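Quick one, T. Sequence first:
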Amino acid sequence: MKEQNIPLEAWRDHVLELEKQLNRVVLGQQAVIRQLLVAVSAHGHVLLEGGVGVGKTTTLRALACLIGGPFQRIEGTVDLLPTDLIYYTRLDDEGRPRVEPGPMLQHGEKLAVFFFNEINRARPQVHSQLLRVMAERQVRAFERDYSFPHLLVFADRNRVEREETFELPAAARDRFFMEIDMAAPGDETCRENLAFEPRFYNAAALVSSLPQGVFDYRHLGELALEIQNRIATTPALRKYVLDLWRATEAPGRFNVQLPEVEMSRFVLAGASPRGAAALVRAARVHAWLAGRKAVAPEDVQAVFRPVMGHRIFLQPVYEAQREWWMPLLLDAILDQVTTPDLS
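Structure tokens:
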């Protein structure tokens, strides 16, 4: 398919149909699903937050089904080795050792969705291996290089149990395009359906009821590139994004205040250049999904929290209560940085 002939509007219809199908089997998560589709359409990896049993795995299995690509999952454990992502050993029927492809190699370059469940239970050495795969979309094994051009990595963290867990280093967190929080739905009708409707009891059957290949996963990379090339940003919008980026580094310069906090001693490190680029990429996709040809401030605001929140690092005294402070900081930045009028 030649670049100039890529039908962006037709692809948008396919992505919106994908969103419709996801909302049919995953109830009460419209905002989460829209954010997921922003990340997918930007070909970015996602750190999915949420408690046990809220539907993270079902959502990702449904996504893999709808884009028609192979899905693999691995559980984070304290004894997991970096090589366990790539291969595993076993004894065959004759008692001889054999080496078999691990979860990342079983589907070769066709692998579309890789889900790392409870990633913070795995040791830092495993994080490093995953980090390389995410950054390069390739890995070396069996004396050859394996490429994963279509790969999307999703991971979640265990936020309840703290024993034998290892927090992700800054470099690993920054590789995730977005960090999306998925909680139990608040809508009473959704809760009633999830509790009493039998079709939601069997996640496998629910996923199998979906149409396959609503959007061809093999085109995600070129779709992401075309969106970035075709959705415009005005000078005023660019200044707004740069101001937001600067505010993550030095919130006090923009009169961002939090109760009983000395703002000059609050932030250890702001968002990286990769984070600023991710904010623009996500805002362009959000504008495209809304049918706009140029990014509006509301597109930036809609993706600011999931793109930037995990890329800002607080001083240790505040980092221990990150889940409390970070939402307050992000809201305050959006409130204080002047929104341009593009009308």
